[in-house]
Inverse folding.
């Protein structure tokens, strides 16, 4: 029987949608989004749009939420929340933002429209892959003057969250944004509500995020989503890339075509093994049992146990 952590992993697609994608829980999503905007926008209500759309091709993955938000000044703006990694990730988020603007144009020729564009924001939550080589965990992007940095247009924005770069322990959390990032990244590792998170919004979060609250069908869906997440980790890590480069360099130094090919292949194989071991360590740290890790990643039980030393 598989062992699960007490709380579901919020960085899985299913876990994120279950907690934040229900009308009864929209106060959780509003709280999280308001912390991301850090006072620039204050959401007093939001509507989950039904046109949750996928990319132009299946492997692009899907937008998690398409939202229409109402600010405290009664203005409205649109938010898309994305989680899954895609190739050319930055370009695709810009495409989604531009598409949300383009879709506002009335159908047919309307000379009286006047380009009255609603504000648009794209929010990307990245777990398991990096947006840039900088150590920042929050990238708040807007259109600005290249020379002076003066904001050129403030109604189109992109917020990228790199959870891999957020490493604060719970005792050092000072803001609600930090608390949200901590629970997003570490929920599946926790076994109780920490004293550092004792606020009504987080008490509600912890009360509804317990794995035992899922029915059998929901548990099956969650398990599939969890396995998909670890499969994505295996594909996204840079260990294989580093291995290929090392193998290519080794082959070039040997000066033989055969040596190049062998070096590349050795680098790929070593990179893949390093990736699997890195993922196994992460799963061990999150409380998964050895047998489950073996089934998901294809490593032997002995290989996994050796990582525990």
């Amino acid at each position: 029987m598989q062992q699960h952590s007490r709380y579901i992993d919020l960085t899985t697609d299913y876990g994120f949608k279950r907690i934040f994608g229900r009308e009864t829980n929209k106060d959780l999503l509003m709280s999280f989004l308001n912390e991301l905007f850090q006072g620039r926008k204050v959401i007093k209500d939001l509507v989950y749009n039904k046109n949750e759309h996928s990319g132009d091709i299946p492997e692009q993955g899907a937008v998690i939420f398409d939202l229409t938000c109402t600010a405290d000044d009664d203005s409205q703006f649109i938010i898309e929340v994305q989680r899954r990694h895609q190739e050319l990730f930055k370009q695709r988020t810009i495409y989604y933002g531009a598409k949300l603007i383009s879709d506002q144009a009335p159908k047919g020729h309307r000379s009286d429209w006047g380009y009255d564009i609603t504000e648009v924001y794209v929010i990307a939550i990245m777990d398991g892959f990096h947006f840039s080589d900088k150590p920042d965990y929050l990238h708040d992007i807007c259109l600005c003057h290249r020379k002076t940095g003066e904001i050129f247009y403030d109604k189109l924005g992109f917020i990228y969250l790199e959870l891999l770069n957020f490493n604060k322990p719970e005792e050092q959390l000072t803001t609600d944004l930090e608390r949200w990032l901590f629970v997003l990244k570490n929920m599946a590792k926790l076994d109780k509500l920490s004293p550092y998170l004792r606020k009504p919004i987080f008490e509600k979060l912890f009360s509804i995020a317990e794995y035992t609250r899922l029915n059998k069908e929901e548990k099956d869906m969650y398990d599939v989503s969890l396995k998909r997440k670890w499969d994505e980790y295996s594909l996204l890590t840079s260990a294989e890339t580093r291995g290929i480069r090392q193998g290519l360099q080794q082959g070039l130094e040997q000066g033989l075509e055969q040596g190049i090919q062998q070096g590349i292949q050795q680098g790929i194989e070593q990179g893949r093994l390093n990736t699997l071991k890195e993922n196994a360590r992460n799963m061990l740290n999150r409380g998964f049992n050895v047998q489950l890790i073996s089934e998901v990643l294809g490593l032997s039980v002995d290989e996994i146990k050796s990582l525990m030393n």
Notes: Residues 147 and 153 are 15 Å apart (CA to CA).
